């Protein structure tokens, strides 16, 4: 499944890595694309959207 999120608070490469690591801990097979300039994160994962959003939020980033 493809999940698209608007993620607030990503300001640097470290932020991108934190989001990627959070999703990969949840689903090591997940494919993640991040467009920081548009606050957009696209995740290809079998995990439910809410579960992925929660993993990102646990890193301190708000998702919409």
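Sequence proposed for the structure above (64 residues):
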């Amino acid at each position: 499944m493809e999940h698209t999120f608007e993620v607030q608070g990503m300001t640097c490469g470290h932020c991108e890595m934190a989001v990627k690591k959070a999703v990969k801990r949840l689903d090591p097979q997940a494919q993640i694309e991040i467009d920081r300039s548009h606050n957009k994160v696209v995740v290809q994962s079998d995990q439910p959207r809410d579960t992925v959003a929660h993993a990102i939020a646990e890193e301190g980033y708000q998702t919409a």
